[in-house]
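Bit of a strange request maybe. I'm writing a small parser for structure token strings and I need a real example to test against, not something I typed by hand. Could someone generate the tokens for this chain?
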Amino acid sequence: MKAAILVEQNQPLVLADLVLPEQLSFGQVLVKVHFSGICGAQLNEIDGTKGPDRFLPHLLGHEGSGVVQEVGEGVKTVTQGDHVVMHWRPSDGLQSEPPTYRWGNRRVNAGWVTTFNEMAVVSENRLTPIPKDFDLKIAPLFGCAVTTAMGVINNDAQVKIGQSVVVYGVGGVGLNIVQAAGMVSANPVIGIDLFDHKLQMASKFGATHTFNACTTTNLENHLREIVGTKGADVVIDTTGNTRVIEQAYELTHPDGKTILVGVPRKGDNISIYSLPLHFKKVLKGSHGGSAEPHRDIPAYIRLCQIGKLQLEWLITHTFSFECINEAIGFIRSGEAGRVVVSL
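Reply from user aminoacidic:
Good idea to test on real output. This should exercise your parser:
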């Protein structure tokens, strides 16, 4: 099967044919991957944001959709023929050992789930079955973008009705955060980005106000005019830019919460005045919105089916698998909403 392999950090992925393991081990599931999302986490792995990678060469991808081909011993939550979401957050079922693939004479490592490959050996607890009539192109969004965003609002920020929310960066995750904030009746909901067309999308997803950080002078003053002079109740950063994180913290109300979704490069430190943290102000990093896929994904699919959760507009571009490096480059440009790859 064909796969996109991270062979060297800060270099394009290598497309090559890999050999699958001869048999599935306890708790493993073989999935034919149909669509994969591309998340900031994969860009971070390619760039070495968290430091040198000791597992090279290895496979990438943690949000996808596919069809179960075969199940290993002990697997009970999915069966052959099931349509599934592939996700990085652990869920129901067994956690298996990670698979190993062969590339000629080389070993290629993989985690409990990978999606940049036509066939994937996945740990049972990284799969959630979905209705067979649900669009497999949209389904990868439940692997990270949607579940993370909804979890940021529900679990990390615990936004209350009428609280003000500011979102820095309205890409794939940020747009869903905007939508989730609107769904719990936050007000106002403000989106900030560098691209006008993404801000227009944020308005479609429920932002009450939007600002282009490049073209707006005295941005903080404009924001405080809307949320109040003491700042916003909840400020969420998806960019991972340290200067933006500092701005987000400063904009947060003394009793409010700053939630960090984006991850800065290792060594890029933030500088803040920490005294408010000893009182009621909160600075918190999100880990996938503390999502529980087996519970959350079926609930969000039901919301899609009744029209309360809109995802069709979120996917702005689709690339063929052969063009995955082009897709990654396009994401880096900052112009995309969510990008999916068709395998």
